Amino acid sequence: MYISIDRSCLNQLLPLSVCRCGVVCCWSVGRLQRLLSVSPGASAAGPSDANILRRRAAWLVGRWVPKLPNQLRPVLYESLVSMLGSDPDIVVAVSAAASLASLVNAVEFEPAALGPWLPRVVDGVGRLVLERAEETDTKLSLLANVGLIICQLPPDILALHVASVCALLGSVWSRAAAHESLNLLRQAVVRTAASLARQGVLACDGADVSPLYGLAGTLVRHVLGGGAGQAEPAGQAGSIQQATGAGAAVYMLDDALELWLLLLDTTPPPNWIPPLLDLFPLLLLETGAGGVLADTFEHVSPCLQLHLRYLSLPAPFGETVLSRHGGALVGQWRRMLQGLKDKPTVWLLQTIHALLVLFPSLAAEGGLDGLFGELLGLIAAANQQGSSIVLVHGLAVFGRLLWLSPESFVALLGRLGLCPAPLVADSPPPQLVALLNLWIDKVDSMGSALMRRESGLGLVRLVLVSQPSLMPQLAADVLSLCVSLAADASSTLPDSAAAAGQPADDDDDTPSNYDESMVDFSLSALVRQRGHIRHAAVKPFVLEQLRQASAAHPELLQRTLHSLDSSLQQQLRTVFAL
User: Fold this and answer.
1) Dist CA 266 CA 259 (whole Å)
2) Contact partners, residue 517, CB within 8 Å, separation at least 6
3) 469-495 b/e (C-beta count within 10 Å ≥ 16 → b)
4) Separation of alpha carbons 158 and 318, rounded Å
5) Is the pTM of this model over 0.85?
6) What is the DSSP secondary-structure string of 236-250?
7) Residue 351 class from Cβ within 10 Å (0-12 exposed, 13-18 middle, 19+ buried)?
8) Contacts of 496 (CB under 8 A, 6+ apart)
9) Residue 389 pLDDT more than 80?
C-alpha cells in the first residue's frame, strides 16, 4: 500500500491542497501527520510495528514533496524535527533527516519557515552522527543532508548558526580519527565547510563568523599536511589537533583547495586577510600542497588560482606576500616549467603574465631572470615540438615585458646572454632576429586581444624607436603587423559603437582558445584595473611611434618605407593616412 501511494505521486498532477481525491488528501493531511506522531507504545502489535509505521510515514513525506501544500510544510517541519532529535529508533530518525532535506530542496521552500527549527536540526543530526550512527554510509548520508540544507538557506539565516554548525563539523573531524573510514568522514567535513563558506556567510555584517575561519583554516592545514603543532581555534568543539595523523589522503586535496579558494573569494577585504596570509606557505615547495604539486602536478589549477588570489590582494597584502615569499614562489614556478606539459603549462604562463600585470617593475629589477631563462628554453622547445598554444602564451609573457619597457626587455636579453645591450648598430645578433621573426609570425595566433596588442605594439616600439638597428630586417613585417592590429581593433568593435563612430569599452578579453577547465582564471579583471590597451588606442600609438622614428632617424625610416611592397604601402596609407 505504501509503495502504491508513493508511485501515485507520479500520476498526481495537482497539488494536494486542490486535489479532490479523498484518499490521498486523507493520507497527506490527516493520517500521514498522525502516523508521524505515533509513539513506540501506541501500536497494538508492539513498538516495532509503530516504528515501521513512523519510518514509512517519514519516507512518504520525502517522496511526496512536490505535491505537498505550503501550509502543511511548517507542521511537517515540526514533526520531522521532533523525530530527528528524540526518536529512539535510529532508522526512523535517519528517515526523518532525509525527508527534511527533501523538503528543504524543493522549489517551494521558504527559508524563514525552517529558521526557528535550524538549531534543533543541527543538534539532532549531530547526536545521530556522533553518538548513534555506527555505519559510515549513515554518517555520510546525514552530513550530506546537512550540506544540502546549508545550500538552500540564505547567508543571513546561516550566519546566526555558524558556531553550532562549525562545532558539529569540528567534533566529527576529531572523532573520525578512531573510525575505520577516517578519510571519507573528514572529506565530508571539508565539503560541508565549503558549502557553508560558499553561501556567503563570511560577508554578513554583524555576524560572528570567526568559528568558520578557525575551522576552515585548521582543516586546510591538516589536509595539506601542514597542521602539526597548530593550535586549535578558540571556541572550537572537539580537539582537531589531537586527531591529526600523518597527513590526509591525496584525493582530499581538491576539496581543501576549493575551501581555501572560497575563504579568499568570499571574505570581504580586509576583514580577515591577515590571518589568511599565514596559510600561504602551504603552497610552497617546502610544505603542504607545494610539495605535492611539485611531485605530481595533479592540482596545478587550484594552486595557481591561489597564487593569483594572494598576489592580487589589495594593498599592502599582495605586496606583503611577494616580499615574504616571492623568491620561493618564483623558484617553484621555474621547477614547474621544467615538468609541466600542455594545458597546465599555459595556466602557469598566464599566472606569470598576471604577475607582470600586478607588479610591472619586477622584471626590471632582475628578480625574474632565472624564470625568464627557463621560459626562453620552453619557447624554443615548444617551437621545435609544434606546441603552438604553449609557444604563443610564452611569447605573450615576454610581450607584457616588451610593452612595459623595450629597454628592460633588451637589458634582460643581455643578462641572459642572448644579445648585447645596447645592440650593435648594424649587426643585431642572429638569434635575436630569429626570435623576433618567430614572435611577429605568431602574434596573429594569440587568442587574446590583450596578448596581441601587448606583443604587437611592443614590437612596433622596439623596432621603430627603441632599437632602430633592427629596422632594415624587421620593419616590413612589423608595419604589416601594425595594419593587422588596426584591422583587428576595427573588426572587433561592437556594431553599436562602430555605427556611432565611438570607441568601444572592450574589456572582455577572454581568449578564443581559452581553456574553460581552469575555472575563474582570467586576466580580464586585472587588466581592467591596471590599464588595458583599448581599441581606440591602437592607431594613435602606431602613429606616435612612426612620428618618433621619423624625428630620430628620418632617412632610415624613409628608406624603409620606400622599400616596402606596394600593396603594404597602400594599406599603410589607407589605415594610417600616411
Assistant:
1) 10
2) 301, 343
3) bbbeebbbbbbbbbbbbbebbeeebee
4) 31
5) no
6) -SS-TGGG--S---G
7) buried
8) none
9) yes
